[in-house]
Amino acid sequence: MAITTSAVPAQADPPTTAESGILRRAACEFGLTGILLFFVVTGVRWLIAPDSPISVHDTHYALAILGVAIGVLLMVFMASPPGRRSGGHLNPAVTIALWRLGGFPARAVVPYVTAQLGGSVAGTALGRLVWGPAVSRGPVDYATVHADPSWGATAILTAETGVLVLVTMMLSVLLAHPAGRRLLPYAVGLATTVVIATFGPFSGGSANPARQFGPALLAQDTTHLWIYLIAPVLGAVLGAALVALVGTLTAQRPRC
Q1: pLDDT at 211 over 60
Q2: What Å distances lie between residue 159 and 22, 49, 228, CA to CA?
Protein backbone atom coordinates (compact mmCIF):
# COMPACT_ATOMS: atom_id res chain seq x y z
CA MET A 1 0.00 0.00 0.00
CA ALA A 2 0.65 3.51 0.04
CA ILE A 3 4.00 4.78 0.90
CA THR A 4 2.46 7.98 2.14
CA THR A 5 5.74 10.02 2.12
CA SER A 6 4.86 13.65 1.83
CA ALA A 7 7.95 15.05 3.45
CA VAL A 8 7.59 18.81 3.18
CA PRO A 9 9.21 20.14 6.38
CA ALA A 10 6.66 21.14 8.97
CA GLN A 11 6.25 24.82 9.73
CA ALA A 12 8.16 25.87 12.80
CA ASP A 13 6.61 27.29 15.96
CA PRO A 14 8.19 29.87 18.27
CA PRO A 15 10.32 28.26 21.03
CA THR A 16 7.79 29.17 23.72
CA THR A 17 5.11 27.12 22.02
CA ALA A 18 7.30 24.32 20.65
CA GLU A 19 5.70 21.48 22.59
CA SER A 20 2.11 22.57 21.94
CA GLY A 21 3.09 23.11 18.32
CA ILE A 22 4.31 19.53 18.05
CA LEU A 23 1.01 18.26 19.46
CA ARG A 24 -0.98 20.38 17.01
CA ARG A 25 1.05 19.07 14.10
CA ALA A 26 0.68 15.53 15.42
CA ALA A 27 -3.08 16.09 15.49
CA CYS A 28 -2.88 16.99 11.79
CA GLU A 29 -1.04 13.71 11.19
CA PHE A 30 -3.77 11.83 13.06
CA GLY A 31 -6.49 13.41 10.94
CA LEU A 32 -4.74 13.03 7.60
CA THR A 33 -3.74 9.42 8.28
CA GLY A 34 -7.30 8.68 9.36
CA ILE A 35 -8.71 10.14 6.14
CA LEU A 36 -6.14 8.22 4.11
CA LEU A 37 -7.09 4.89 5.69
CA PHE A 38 -10.77 5.64 5.27
CA PHE A 39 -10.22 6.09 1.54
CA VAL A 40 -8.07 2.97 1.40
CA VAL A 41 -10.84 0.94 3.02
CA THR A 42 -13.38 2.57 0.74
CA GLY A 43 -11.34 1.79 -2.35
CA VAL A 44 -10.78 -1.84 -1.40
CA ARG A 45 -14.43 -2.28 -0.45
CA TRP A 46 -15.71 -1.09 -3.83
CA LEU A 47 -12.95 -2.45 -6.03
CA ILE A 48 -12.69 -5.94 -4.54
CA ALA A 49 -15.91 -6.89 -2.73
CA PRO A 50 -18.00 -9.36 -4.82
CA ASP A 51 -21.22 -7.40 -4.23
CA SER A 52 -19.77 -4.17 -5.64
CA PRO A 53 -21.13 -3.06 -9.02
CA ILE A 54 -17.67 -1.79 -9.95
CA SER A 55 -15.71 -4.76 -8.63
CA VAL A 56 -12.46 -5.43 -10.54
CA HIS A 57 -11.81 -9.16 -10.64
CA ASP A 58 -8.16 -8.89 -11.70
CA THR A 59 -6.14 -8.08 -8.57
CA HIS A 60 -3.36 -6.42 -10.55
CA TYR A 61 -5.79 -3.98 -12.17
CA ALA A 62 -7.53 -3.30 -8.87
CA LEU A 63 -4.22 -2.46 -7.19
CA ALA A 64 -3.17 -0.26 -10.09
CA ILE A 65 -6.40 1.73 -9.82
CA LEU A 66 -6.06 1.97 -6.06
CA GLY A 67 -2.43 3.05 -6.43
CA VAL A 68 -3.31 5.91 -8.77
CA ALA A 69 -6.13 7.06 -6.48
CA ILE A 70 -3.96 7.00 -3.37
CA GLY A 71 -1.12 8.73 -5.20
CA VAL A 72 -3.41 11.58 -6.19
CA LEU A 73 -4.80 11.77 -2.66
CA LEU A 74 -1.31 12.17 -1.24
CA MET A 75 -0.61 15.06 -3.56
CA VAL A 76 -3.79 16.75 -2.34
CA PHE A 77 -2.96 16.03 1.32
CA MET A 78 0.53 17.49 0.96
CA ALA A 79 -0.86 20.70 -0.51
CA SER A 80 -3.64 21.04 2.09
CA PRO A 81 -3.22 23.40 5.07
CA PRO A 82 -2.98 20.51 7.61
CA GLY A 83 -0.46 18.74 5.39
CA ARG A 84 1.68 21.83 4.98
CA ARG A 85 1.59 22.45 8.71
CA SER A 86 2.60 18.96 9.82
CA GLY A 87 4.73 18.04 6.84
CA GLY A 88 2.15 15.41 5.91
CA HIS A 89 4.29 12.36 6.64
CA LEU A 90 1.35 9.96 7.21
CA ASN A 91 3.92 7.22 7.65
CA PRO A 92 6.00 6.40 10.76
CA ALA A 93 8.86 5.21 8.56
CA VAL A 94 8.99 8.56 6.77
CA THR A 95 9.01 10.41 10.09
CA ILE A 96 11.93 8.27 11.23
CA ALA A 97 13.71 8.68 7.90
CA LEU A 98 13.46 12.47 8.13
CA TRP A 99 14.72 12.37 11.71
CA ARG A 100 17.71 10.25 10.71
CA LEU A 101 18.39 12.56 7.77
CA GLY A 102 18.53 15.49 10.18
CA GLY A 103 15.41 17.19 8.91
CA PHE A 104 13.02 16.45 11.77
CA PRO A 105 13.33 16.98 15.56
CA ALA A 106 13.78 13.85 17.68
CA ARG A 107 11.29 15.05 20.29
CA ALA A 108 8.49 15.03 17.70
CA VAL A 109 9.03 11.45 16.51
CA VAL A 110 6.99 9.67 19.20
CA PRO A 111 4.00 12.07 19.01
CA TYR A 112 3.95 11.78 15.22
CA VAL A 113 4.23 7.99 15.14
CA THR A 114 1.57 7.63 17.84
CA ALA A 115 -0.77 9.94 15.95
CA GLN A 116 -0.22 8.11 12.66
CA LEU A 117 -0.93 4.69 14.15
CA GLY A 118 -3.96 6.05 16.00
CA GLY A 119 -5.23 7.65 12.80
CA SER A 120 -4.85 4.31 11.05
CA VAL A 121 -7.17 2.63 13.55
CA ALA A 122 -9.66 5.51 13.49
CA GLY A 123 -9.82 5.70 9.71
CA THR A 124 -10.26 1.95 9.35
CA ALA A 125 -13.01 1.93 11.96
CA LEU A 126 -14.74 4.80 10.17
CA GLY A 127 -14.67 2.80 6.96
CA ARG A 128 -16.39 -0.09 8.72
CA LEU A 129 -18.97 2.28 10.21
CA VAL A 130 -19.78 3.92 6.88
CA TRP A 131 -19.74 0.88 4.58
CA GLY A 132 -21.06 -1.76 6.94
CA PRO A 133 -20.34 -5.48 7.31
CA ALA A 134 -18.92 -5.83 3.79
CA VAL A 135 -15.72 -4.22 5.10
CA SER A 136 -15.18 -6.89 7.75
CA ARG A 137 -15.87 -9.86 5.47
CA GLY A 138 -13.52 -11.45 2.95
CA PRO A 139 -12.01 -10.58 0.61
CA VAL A 140 -12.02 -7.00 1.95
CA ASP A 141 -11.02 -7.86 5.54
CA TYR A 142 -10.70 -4.21 6.58
CA ALA A 143 -8.33 -3.68 3.62
CA THR A 144 -5.61 -5.72 5.31
CA VAL A 145 -2.51 -6.15 3.17
CA HIS A 146 -1.67 -9.73 2.17
CA ALA A 147 1.42 -10.98 0.38
CA ASP A 148 1.32 -13.57 -2.37
CA PRO A 149 1.18 -17.05 -0.73
CA SER A 150 4.40 -18.01 -2.49
CA TRP A 151 6.27 -15.18 -0.75
CA GLY A 152 7.85 -16.11 2.57
CA ALA A 153 8.75 -13.84 5.45
CA THR A 154 12.29 -13.20 4.18
CA ALA A 155 11.11 -12.12 0.74
CA ILE A 156 8.46 -9.79 2.18
CA LEU A 157 10.94 -8.31 4.64
CA THR A 158 13.49 -7.68 1.89
CA ALA A 159 11.00 -6.06 -0.47
CA GLU A 160 9.36 -3.82 2.13
CA THR A 161 12.74 -2.77 3.52
CA GLY A 162 14.17 -2.10 0.09
CA VAL A 163 11.30 0.17 -0.88
CA LEU A 164 11.94 2.46 2.08
CA VAL A 165 15.67 2.51 1.43
CA LEU A 166 14.92 3.90 -2.02
CA VAL A 167 12.26 6.29 -0.74
CA THR A 168 14.62 7.65 1.92
CA MET A 169 17.30 8.25 -0.69
CA MET A 170 14.75 9.99 -2.91
CA LEU A 171 13.71 12.24 -0.03
CA SER A 172 17.32 13.16 0.73
CA VAL A 173 17.91 14.23 -2.86
CA LEU A 174 14.70 16.22 -3.21
CA LEU A 175 14.96 17.93 0.16
CA ALA A 176 18.50 19.08 -0.58
CA HIS A 177 17.30 21.58 -3.19
CA PRO A 178 14.44 24.12 -3.22
CA ALA A 179 13.32 22.91 -6.66
CA GLY A 180 13.26 19.35 -5.36
CA ARG A 181 11.00 20.34 -2.48
CA ARG A 182 8.50 21.75 -4.94
CA LEU A 183 8.50 18.42 -6.77
CA LEU A 184 7.88 16.37 -3.62
CA PRO A 185 4.10 16.01 -3.98
CA TYR A 186 4.45 14.67 -7.50
CA ALA A 187 7.38 12.42 -6.64
CA VAL A 188 5.56 11.01 -3.63
CA GLY A 189 2.36 10.41 -5.57
CA LEU A 190 4.19 8.70 -8.40
CA ALA A 191 6.29 6.58 -6.04
CA THR A 192 3.19 5.51 -4.14
CA THR A 193 1.42 4.48 -7.32
CA VAL A 194 4.43 2.48 -8.51
CA VAL A 195 4.86 0.70 -5.17
CA ILE A 196 1.21 -0.31 -4.91
CA ALA A 197 0.92 -1.42 -8.52
CA THR A 198 4.29 -3.19 -8.64
CA PHE A 199 4.74 -4.70 -5.19
CA GLY A 200 1.07 -4.96 -4.15
CA PRO A 201 0.44 -8.34 -5.82
CA PHE A 202 3.65 -9.79 -4.33
CA SER A 203 4.84 -8.37 -0.99
CA GLY A 204 1.64 -6.43 -0.35
CA GLY A 205 3.19 -3.06 -1.20
CA SER A 206 2.52 -1.51 2.20
CA ALA A 207 5.79 0.34 2.85
CA ASN A 208 3.99 2.10 5.71
CA PRO A 209 3.44 0.71 9.23
CA ALA A 210 0.29 2.83 9.55
CA ARG A 211 -1.13 1.29 6.39
CA GLN A 212 -1.26 -2.17 7.93
CA PHE A 213 -1.63 -1.41 11.63
CA GLY A 214 -5.30 -0.36 11.79
CA PRO A 215 -6.64 -2.88 9.26
CA ALA A 216 -4.72 -5.81 10.78
CA LEU A 217 -5.76 -4.82 14.30
CA LEU A 218 -9.47 -4.64 13.50
CA ALA A 219 -9.34 -7.75 11.31
CA GLN A 220 -7.42 -9.57 14.07
CA ASP A 221 -5.01 -10.71 11.39
CA THR A 222 -1.44 -10.61 12.68
CA THR A 223 0.06 -12.70 9.87
CA HIS A 224 3.38 -11.05 9.03
CA LEU A 225 2.23 -7.92 10.88
CA TRP A 226 5.63 -7.61 12.53
CA ILE A 227 7.22 -7.43 9.08
CA TYR A 228 4.94 -4.65 7.88
CA LEU A 229 5.66 -2.69 11.07
CA ILE A 230 9.43 -3.24 11.25
CA ALA A 231 10.57 -3.48 7.62
CA PRO A 232 9.71 0.12 6.57
CA VAL A 233 11.40 1.50 9.70
CA LEU A 234 14.46 -0.65 9.04
CA GLY A 235 14.51 0.60 5.46
CA ALA A 236 14.31 4.20 6.64
CA VAL A 237 17.25 3.74 9.02
CA LEU A 238 19.35 1.90 6.44
CA GLY A 239 18.50 4.44 3.74
CA ALA A 240 19.54 7.35 5.96
CA ALA A 241 22.76 5.52 6.88
CA LEU A 242 23.51 4.96 3.20
CA VAL A 243 22.93 8.64 2.46
CA ALA A 244 25.33 9.58 5.26
CA LEU A 245 27.93 7.12 3.98
CA VAL A 246 27.71 8.48 0.44
CA GLY A 247 28.03 12.00 1.79
CA THR A 248 31.12 11.06 3.80
CA LEU A 249 32.78 9.32 0.89
CA THR A 250 32.03 12.25 -1.42
CA ALA A 251 33.50 14.73 1.07
CA GLN A 252 36.68 12.64 1.42
CA ARG A 253 37.21 12.25 -2.31
CA PRO A 254 40.25 14.24 -3.48
CA ARG A 255 39.45 17.23 -5.66
CA CYS A 256 41.41 17.91 -8.81
Answers
A1: yes
A2: 32, 27, 10
Three-state secondary-structure class, residue 191: helix
C-alpha–C-alpha distance, residues 29 and 83, integer Å: 8
Measured between alpha carbons, how far is 144 from 237 in angstroms, rounded to an integer? 25
- The three-state DSSP-derived secondary structure of 79-136 is HCHHHHHHCCCCCHHHHHHHHHCCCCCHHHHHHHHHHHHHHHHHHHHHHHHHHHHHHC
Residue type at 44? V
Distance CA 172, CA 118 (A): 27
Angle (CA) 29 35 41, round 5°: 130
Convert the pLDDT of each residue in 179-195 to its tens digit: 888 898 899 889 999 99
